[in-house]
Amino acid sequence: MNKSPYPQCWKPETKPPRYCPGCGHLMALRSLGQAIDRLKIADQTIFGVDIGCSLLAWDFFDIDTIQTHHGRTIPVMLGLKMAQGKKVCIAYLGDGGGYAIGAQHLVNSSLRDDPITVILINNANYAMTGGQQAPTTLSDQITETTPYGKMTASLKGPELVRNINPRAFVGRGLAIQIEKTENLIQRAIQHQQEKNGFSFVEILAPCPTNWRLPPLEMKNFMQKMQDNFPIGDF
User: Fold this and answer.
1) What are the residue ranges of helices labelled H in 153-204?
2) For residues 159 and 136, what is the distance between their CA atoms, to the nearest angstrom?
3) Considering only CA atoms, which of 42, 53, 12, 30 is closest in space to residue 207?
4) Which tens digits make up the pLDDT trace of 161-179?
5) pLDDT value at residue 14
6) Full-prediction pTM beyond 0.90?
7) Interacting residues of 166 by C-beta distance below 8 A, sequence separation 6+
8) Number of C-beta neighbours around residue 41 at 10 A
9) HSE on the CB side for 110, CA within 13 Å?
10) Cβ-based neighbour number of residue 85 at 10 Å
11) Helical packing angle, 178-195 and 24-39, nearest 10°
12) Which of 4, 98, 106, 108 has the lowest tally of Cβ within 10 angstroms?
């Protein structure tokens, strides 16, 4: 039995986290690692990471991993799935890689019902480059590029994918709810395995470094995110 706080497929002794303290990526990756452990698919999985904060996950897991160009993780994972159909292919990206530079790939992959799983971290900003406005930035949210608050609405990825493909597995989780998010990811992977179809999970994640909020205000902001981006499966 694994008594470590880390998933069995995670090697923290040799691959230490490089994320900022309190970053939601760490929580999301723990949920992913636990789902891989529970399904016993470490030797079957190919893990693709995008540019941005997601790239820091490239050496977390003791599984086959590839780092792609920005916004191109989804087509790369599809190519690997086409070449090795028995593999479980997981694309891991941020709101820029999925909803901005890579938006066309998310739209068309879900439309084709490609048999891959996409996990997208939504922290409402471009964190790697200093906290600029992202497609998921909330209305009125102050960022490096919206000093007076964002003037437009936020893109809602799971709702978009659901409208494109009613057959896909689609869900949104909360990074701090590790067990619930693990369950969502596990079901998404099983959909890829059993239905040979597209699955998509967005995870709402805190970004203490770029939000520049004290703990209580950060908690309130996470609640505001949940109000704007309802969690659950769709």
Assistant:
1) 157-164, 178-195
2) 13
3) 53
4) 999 999 999 999 999 999 9
5) 59
6) yes
7) none
8) 18
9) 26
10) 10
11) 50
12) 4
